[in-house]
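Changelog excerpt: complex records now keep ligands as SMILES alongside chain sequences, and the structure block spans every component. Example after the change:
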Amino acid sequence: MVLVFAEQNNGTFKKATFEAVNYAAKVAQQSGTEVCALVLGEATDVAVLGNYGAAKVVHIADARLNNLEARAYAKAIAIVATQQDAQVLVFSNNNTAKAIAPRVAARLKAGLVAGAIAIPDTANGFVVKKSVFSGKAFAYVKINSAIKVISIIPNSIGVVKSEGSSAVSVQQIDFTDHDFAVKFVSVNKVQGIVPLGEAELVVSGGRGLKGPENWGILENLAGSIGATLACSRPVADSHWRPHHEHVGQTGGTIRPDLYIAVGISGAIQHLAGVNSSKTIVVINKDAEAPFFKSADYGVLGDAFEIVPKLTAAFLKYKAAQHA
Amino acid sequence: MKILVCLTKAPDTTTKIAFTDNDTKLNEAGVQWIINPYDEWYALVRALELKEAGTATDVHLITVGKTDAEPVIRKALALGGDEAVRIDADSNDSFYIASQIADYVRSNAYDLIMTGKESIDYNNASIGAMVAELLDLPYISHVSKLEIAGGLVTVNREIEGGEETNTCNLPLVISCQKGMAEARIPNMRGIMAARTKPLKVLPASAVDMLTEIVSYDTPAAKQGVKMIDADQMDELVRLLHEEAKVI
Ligand SMILES: Cc1cc2nc3c(=O)[nH]c(=O)nc-3n(C[C@H](O)[C@H](O)[C@H](O)COP(=O)(O)OP(=O)(O)OC[C@H]3O[C@@H](n4cnc5c(N)ncnc54)[C@H](O)[C@@H]3O)c2cc1C
Ligand SMILES: Nc1ncnc2c1ncn2[C@@H]1O[C@H](COP(=O)(O)O)[C@@H](O)[C@H]1O
């Protein structure tokens, strides 16, 4: 069996979760087995995971699991993995998975590849490709243990929906107070936008924008295609933008389909967070800006002139698509 | 309250990454080693602040590595760590490294174990969670703010798309990131003092390595940038749609 951790957020699933289920289905196919998806906490319509390749769904509908407690989650996942005789466990490599996948791996004495970007190569052992050195290279990691844990970077293989269905079983785990040592106090979530780590389209601004009052043009640009905003480190450090938007070596690492960098010089520490993006567009007024070397498309000129034009072009394109 | 900070060496980000031995090994010639930034700027500095505030009594350092890890451990001592231990082993396997740290903690109790959010070489973000599991301790990852009062820890941690506030009693394992503290530079007195601070070297325990890196490669170089005239934004959008196929 391949067990996939199907993370839920307030009862529903994100695209990255469906992608992890898809990935699990491909791994299961390789070894002629099936996928069991595990849902922790209260959620509705867990059977939808069948549309992405899960043959069955185990749902631990315990309200105490509505917030992440790494030890309790790891315990539940390890118990279900053993019950289901899971040979491979799959996670989507976000902050939640980073807190629990290694715990589960240690508990099961299973080798872990965190940050996988491709389906395992089983021609010669079990080898998983992962991104290393902040996107500057790939490593092929062989897992030698009987049980294997893989955590895939969102946007690595994409999502395919099918007609499949899954049988749901609701189950309970014997938790003790000891399992819930970390107490939830409060949460402050950015509402209504795709989190940066999962965004397919990202519009990012640097010091070239001169000040926070100028972010309106970037918001419009992002809004025109439903992109998520990011920024360079000095922008976050100067409190022009919130810290969670900061990408780079010390901020977030992302790999969207499209990264539009506006007024960002392209320092190596910035590139470390974004150079795995599929397509990079750079808008900069300095022809010597290093970012142009890592870009697919470049526009030389003043951002304050170019960005509104690009926004208009996107809106025109969208309107034509809907017509 | 005793704190253990887990440190690893990492190649400076500006280092050009290349491989040798048929792409099976990192080419270390010319690599500038630094303390993994998250370990230094956030975990270590916050631990030192807690000691300066009288909340912590000891700040100890641990690294699992060979002798080439000693310069970074000395730098961490120069910044203010009290003493350090190096477990003499070289491995890329997270389970192996975490097991070494857990074994050390089993015979040397700590109230708080701090790691960086991830190492900038292998980007696993795994050691802290594994150490916590091996020691059956609670774990909070991606902590950007840490306060401790009367044995109760209050943290802010980054979650998908936002931030959460949590509390937990000690002992606890956390992974640290930006926001927690400001980077420091070692001063001359610290550097001198570091020379005489204890740096113990212990043999590794026998633990299986569950994974191994069989080879490396590097991403295909970009084809070269296609420059688009500032008045041709419709053309850029067309290329993004038809050529890059990203919208
Ligand atoms: C250890 C370390 C870690 C770091 N980590 C990070 C990190 O995680 N993320 C990060 O981003 N940085 C990081 N940095 C900082 C990094 O080195 C750069 O200083 C930073 O990325 C520069 O930000 P910027 O490009 O926004 O600003 P600048 O370098 O000031 O560049 C501004 C750019 O805007 C252009 N510009 C100006 N006006 C206009 C205009 N009107 N229209 C169009 N273009 C214009 C300029 O030509 C220039 O290229 C780190 C540095 C160190 C030493
Ligand atoms: N070899 C090591 N020795 C001690 N601590 C380590 C080692 N490798 C990683 N760590 C710690 O674990 C954190 C996460 O590393 P990783 O799981 O390798 O991404 C790092 O920021 C360090 O604090």
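The domain at 2-218 of chain B is CATH 3.40.50.620 (Rossmann fold). The longest strand of chain B covers residues 139-149.
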